[in-house]
Write a structure and sequence with these properties.
76% helix; mainly alpha; 9 helices; rod-shaped
Length: 306
């Protein structure tokens, strides 16, 4: 009931007691309604407070979970970064160690190769010294003889030294001088040096090399017939030596260059058959293929010169 309603009814209640009694009853009902309304408001307030508290708890829990998640992510990221750094450090260390080991092995191998080369050089020098000493002893023991008639050595090994003749210089120096002349393009001097080497030291280990280089010089000069003869000398006089594959290949190339394709093919095929693991074997096969021929037929047996 509103204030204006009470203001209207108040004079009437003062005049009429019955009206006052009725008004008192309405006041009681109004008070009860106000009390109920207040209780409902308090209940609503409590409900809102409880819901707000629950919401605050949920928000706090969400914040806590978010903080924990951020912390976990940070820890995981830090762990991954540390693991990556550790792995990188290990890899770098491993690569560095491997590089150091490879460098050490390379140094050791180089030192070993140099040692082997020194030993081989010393053995070669000892062998040549033995040959020089033997030649010197033979020249001392040989009886004096009349000077030999003038002999013009042919291409290749040439005739043997005359009795009592003395080598112009030690074998090693004579061979090295011939190699130097050949490398420098002095073919005539190189031919003379190699011929002298074969004349005085035709039974040494380097004799096949000297014979081969004579043939190679003739091939380079375009003297194909002389080159064929000298390559044959390598193959016939020194059949088993380190220059045999080279001599076979170059003889085949010389024959092909002179128009003897079939004979050249036979030399290439013999090279591929006798020395299949040689570097020249694949080149020989390529030459046969380029000629449009095959190695089906066996190469003929080489006849030695009388």
């Amino acid at each position: 009931m509103t204030f204006w309603r009470w203001r209207t009814l108040l004079p009437a209640l003062l005049i009429c007691p019955s009206l006052a009694l009725a008004a008192s009853k309405e006041i009681v009902e109004l008070s009860r309604d106000v009390a109920i309304l207040q209780e409902q408001m308090r209940a609503l307030q409590r409900s809102q407070d409880e819901k707000l508290s629950a919401i605050q708890v949920l928000v706090q829990q969400a914040l806590d979970a978010s903080n924990k998640a951020n912390t976990s992510v940070a820890l995981l990221q830090s762990s991954l970064q540390q693991s990556s750094k550790d792995q990188q450090t290990k890899v770098v260390t491993t690569v560095t160690d491997m590089g150091a080991k490879v460098d050490t092995l390379t140094t050791d191998f180089s030192a070993l190769r140099e040692s082997v080369a020194d030993i081989s050089s010393q053995v070669g020098k000892l062998q040549q010294q033995m040959v020089d000493i033997g030649n010197a002893v033979r020249s001392i023991q040989a009886p004096a003889a009349a000077p030999p008639s003038s002999i013009t050595p042919g291409n290749g090994a040439g005739p043997g030294p005359a009795a009592g003749s003395v080598p112009p210089m030690p074998a090693e120096k004579l061979y090295q001088n011939a190699n130097r002349d050949r490398s420098g393009g002095n073919d005539d001097l190189a031919l003379g040096g190699y011929n002298d080497y074969l004349k005085y030291y035709g039974n040494t280990d380097l004799a096949p090399n000297a014979q081969y280089y004579i043939a190679e010089i003739h091939f380079r000069q375009g003297k194909l017939d002389e080159a064929l003869q000298e390559f044959d000398m390598v193959l016939e006089k020194y059949p088993d030596n380190n220059k045999t594959p080279d001599a076979l290949y170059m003889k085949g190339a010389t024959l092909v260059k002179t128009g003897k394709r079939t004979q050249g093919k036979q030399e290439f095929c013999e090279l591929a058959k006798r020395f299949p693991s040689s570097d020249l074997a694949s080149k020989a096969k390529s030459q046969v293929k380029a000629l449009g021929l095959t190695c089906g037929a066996a190469a003929p047996i080489r006849k030695k010169r009388s």
